[in-house]
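As a warm-up, study this chain.
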Amino acid sequence: MKSSRCDILNLTDDICKVIRARRSVRTFDGRALTSEDREKLSAFMAEIENPYGIPVAFRLLEGKEHGLKCPVVTGTELYVGGKVSLQPHAFEAFGYAFEMLVLYAQFLGIGTVWLGGTMNRSAYEEAMELAEGEVMPCASPLGYPAEKMSLREGVMRKSIRADERLPFEELFSDRSFENPLTSEKAGGLSQPLEAVRRAPSAVNKQPWRAVVCDGTVHFYLRRSKGFGHSASLDMQRIDVGIALCHFDLAAEENGLNPVFFTEDPQIPADGDTEYIASFRIG
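Now compare it with the structure written out below.
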């Protein structure tokens, strides 16, 4: 993972600033990407890795050529899709890798929005040329944001409270889920955890939780009630992958030398909460 992580850190003075600035964009200004920006994106896509070591392949897709549609997106015909082979941790790996691309696009001034449901999925899957055992969990439009979002986009953002996040103390815990962790008590971990708190998620459900214990941050998935998933698409596992990406980048930038591993610490949790992965702070 070293090349892709270091690339984005070297290209930005403050990855947390990029995370804070980024928002979902559904209204674009109609300009095609410059050849320079398109080349940079393509080069970056080819280098993206994830801590699971599971390959995630990306492809730029021309909407008109492939008949791609998304009723909530206006002002662009360019999309990027990602695909991954179904296997354990595939969705977490996909979320991590795709968010790397999203943040790099933000750095270049290119707007994105995670698309999982509001699209003619079969056309996107055909355009991605899926092999047997592969899935295309999500895609995103690519373009330069319009100065003013459409009325429909404004209504959508308001309906899901897109600019709101759960309190720090509700998402993060100290040693056990019974002990809320404050930003002040988190100390040097406060900025990486705040980067997690600001991560995007499907319908803004924010299903990640983390427990800090003995110099290690353990991440969990707390499933949202009524939010479905299947073997071929698990958006909330993808969401936790996005959170892992934010933590890893912000912790690296803050000199914490995060070391990724997956070994369940057996911290007691309720039935809706599932261990995902951990970072040991070096």
